[in-house]
Amino acid sequence: xxxxxxxxxxxxxxxxxxxxxxxxxxxxxxxxxxxxxxxxxxxxxxxxxxxxxxxxxxxxxxxxxxxxxxxxxxxxxxxxxxxxxxxxxxxxxxxxxxxxxxxxxxxxxxxxxxxxxxxxxxxxxxxxxxxxxxxxxxxxxxxxxxxxxxxxxxxxxxxxxxxxxxxxxxxxxxxxxxxxxxxxxxxxxxxxxxxxxxxxxxxxxxxxxxxxxxxxxxxxxxxxxxxxxxxxxxxxxxxxxxxxxxxxxxxxxxxxxxxxxxxxxxxxxxxxxxxxxxxxxxxxxxxxxxxxxxxxxxxxxxxxxxxxxxxxxxxxxxxxxxxxxxxxxxxxxxxxxxxxxxxxxxxxxxxxxxxxxxxxxxxxxxxxxxxxxxxxxxxxxxxxxxxxxxxxxxxxxxxxxxxxxxxxxxxxxxxxxxxxxxxxxxxxxxxx
Amino acid sequence: xxxxxxxxxxxxxxxxxxxxxxxxxxxxxxxxxxxxxxxxxxxxxxxxxxxxxxxxxxxxxxxxxxxxxxxxxxxxxxxxxxxxxxxxxxxxxxxxxxxxxxxxxxxxxxxxxxxxxxxxxxxxxxxxxxxxxxxxxxxxxxxxxxxxxxxxxxxxxxxxxxxxxxxxxxxxxxxxxxxxxxxxxxxxxxxxxxxxxxxxxxxxxxxxxxxxxxxxxxxxxxxxxxxxxxxxxxxxxxxxxxxxxxxxxxxxxxxxxxxxxxxxxxxxxxxxxxxxxxxxxxxxxxxxxxxxxxxxxxxxxxxxxxxxxxxxxxxx
Lengths: 432, 316
Hints:
The complex is a heterodimer of chains A (about 425) and B (about 325). With about 425 residues, chain A is an alpha/beta fold. Chain A has helices at about 1-25, 45-60, 75-85, 100-105, 120-125, 125-130, 160-165, 180-190, 205-210, 230-245, 265-270, 280-290, 325-335, 335-345, 355, 370-375, 390-405, 410-430, and strands at about 35-40, 65-70, 95, 135, 140-145, 145-150, 155-160, 195, 220, 225-230, 270-280, 295-300, 310, 310-315, 350, 380. Chain A folds into two domains: about 35-150 and about 310-355, D-Maltodextrin-Binding Protein, domain 2, CATH 3.40.190; about 155-310 and about 385-430, D-Maltodextrin-Binding Protein, domain 2, CATH 3.40.190. A six-stranded mixed β-sheet of chain A has the order 2-1-3-14-6-15. In chain A, helix 9 packs across helix 10 and helix 17 (about 390-405) runs antiparallel to helix 18. By secondary structure, chain B is mostly helical. Chain B has a domain at about 85-285: MetI-like (MetI-like fold). Chain B has helices at about 1-5, 25-60, 80-85, 85-120, 125-130, 140-150, 155-165, 180-205, 210-220, 225-250, 255-260, 270-280, 285-315. The model of chain B is unreliable at about 1-20 (pLDDT under 50). The chains are: A alpha/beta (about 425), B mainly alpha (about 325). The interface of A and B includes residues 85 and 409 of A.
């Protein structure tokens, strides 16, 4: 029995030692080079290659500040960040988008970069873009990320079908109006073919961004309290899309529940002539479309204006990072003008860098780059970016309500009522 | 009666049915040894199961929110009051109940049929049993992704098959249509949970004495009558246990439904666990999310207690 007891003690001691050893380590010796963890969400082939190449170049040139590339995914980055923030071990440099920054900044998870951003980088990016990363943090208003890539909404169209219907191909200087677009959709709807596909599985950002064409902002702030508003301006785009689905019958209803990329096979097969899309979708068309498929990028539509809400991809620094200065050094190099050209081409998006935007490869008419880059002029700060509690409003209220409306389950007045009543209830939680 | 006067030195008579312990000291030492041997297993359980559980209960009485340097205050039963008034949560709970009851019942019926089949002397019975267990070996996320492909509106095999046999004339977006999303995930739930229910029922079937069937057959009972009057009553304890467990597993389902629909469209498949998850990890209301977890547990315990009580009462 005594021998058994001794064995048991030995096993327990070994286990405890094992656990202790497992929990220790990872200390930061001052003699060693600094290592920064860089969480990247790059996913397109060219973008991945560009990100990894830049990190390798940096590591070669900066032996004392080494960057460890960590691959993340847009699908679960929120969970990954929340758990790593709460666990106190976040990546030093974080790739995300500006809509996610508001919450993280308010919760104090991100470092205020205002005083760390070098003048060169600050001047190379327009103020409107900086606005997409400026939020109220725990220490007051500050810049919580460096914006570097932006997306605008365009329309990808089957060129042969447009030509056959003798439709005018618009330019950035003379875009289609919404009325014109609806007329053209009717012209292009022939037999079993629809003029347009509206993939609205995640309808909120798309609708809110496009509603700015008619001045629809969806939120108003008075006395420090933000509430939802759905007036005639906010209803315009909603009603027009709904009309295309159920009145004009120019939009294919079977694409309603689809994600942005899902209608592409039907687009190639000629089931619909046009697909509204973020500019990055051009890459998928270039890679996947059957040979001989001719397509064209249609510039942003015009309501009262061509304005659209802008969201930026950003690089931020975690508040818990032990090396914020070194992290900013890396970000500043990573996002210089030339590198932004590489990153924009990799992701098929618009760079925020003024230097990068002048690069001839981003203004060529090949693959609609000229239209994409020119669409940057239409981008303004999306009002919802500044709304505290927008994420919950979007998930709990706006997404189900918009999905119900586009599925023709509720009227536009019911939509307005639900968005304002239920939305205000959600925002109340954050107004306290 | 001689045993009453025997063993005058024994301090206490042995309890009925148990032999007297002749050497209490060595046994006590043995208990300590056993406890020490158990420690390596107990420590992780305490650290990773019991600890978080207790911490979760504690959080449910606080206003804990996500955030650096967040200050946590005790708020008593406020979170539970908010849960009671949260219509979104109760509509999610209603969806959860529909999901859990449907999956549990359909899963049981399908598993019973499969178990009866696998209990026969079929050719390749072993292979059939192994194949029937295949879904059990798959992680929920993989199941979710696989079924997303099956249900895909353009490239999914389901639409293709239904159109080939002329049951459909257009593509249906099964997981995003308001009318089909919940039934579609119920089918996946049934498919996923069937193997374990089948195994348990098969084990139960193999425990039914053959003599009872033979006696009933001699008395002229039909196959159906033997199933109804012999097999089912013999299986009753197994059925009660497995359906109760299935219900608990199903109401707590998260990963598979998250991978399939993320609660959409329009919240039609937002199960209570998805609701609680969003409160914690999307909006940062950890205290409230913990209260939701505790509330779900309490309601499930009540429903389950009532079910087991009814079953016990009927079997008496």
